[in-house]
Amino acid sequence: MGIAFPDGAFSVTTAGGDVVLLRICELCGAAVVEADGTDLSFHKRWHRITGSGNWVDPATGRVHGTGNPLLPSG
């Protein structure tokens, strides 16, 4: 079966009535808030810097990567 992450962005409304835009990281599945000073590209740079972005989905064998040309991109 494997993990299926939603494509694109979605929004949620807080209890205070604010609308927050979220994007899903296809590397780890985190919901990343689109806000001043942070975004999905910043989150993916964190994966590259820490080396935490390359993992294998055990159900499918698919390699998820951060753009390493030696790995299939995920």
Structure description:
- This is Histidine ammonia-lyase.
- By secondary structure, the protein is of the alpha+beta class.
- The chain is 15% helix and 24% strand.
- Strand 1 (9-13) and strand 2 form a beta hairpin.
- The longest helix is centred in the middle third of the chain and has 11 residues, at 40-50.
- Mean pLDDT is 74; it is low at 68-74.
Distance N to C terminus = 16 Å
| Unreliably modeled segments | 68-74
The helical percent reads: 10-25%
- Mean pLDDT over all positions: 74
Biggest sheet statistics: 3 strands, antiparallel
Organism: Agromyces soli
Protein name: Histidine ammonia-lyase
Helices, strands, pairings?
Blueprint: E1 9-13, E2 19-24, E3 31-33, H1 40-50, E4 55-56, E5 63-64
Antiparallel strand pairs: 1-2, 2-3, 4-5
Structure at a glance:
15% of the residues lie in helices and 24% in strands. The chain has 74 residues and is an alpha+beta fold. 7% of the residues are buried.
Keywords:
alpha+beta, three-stranded antiparallel β-sheet, 1 helix, about 25% strand
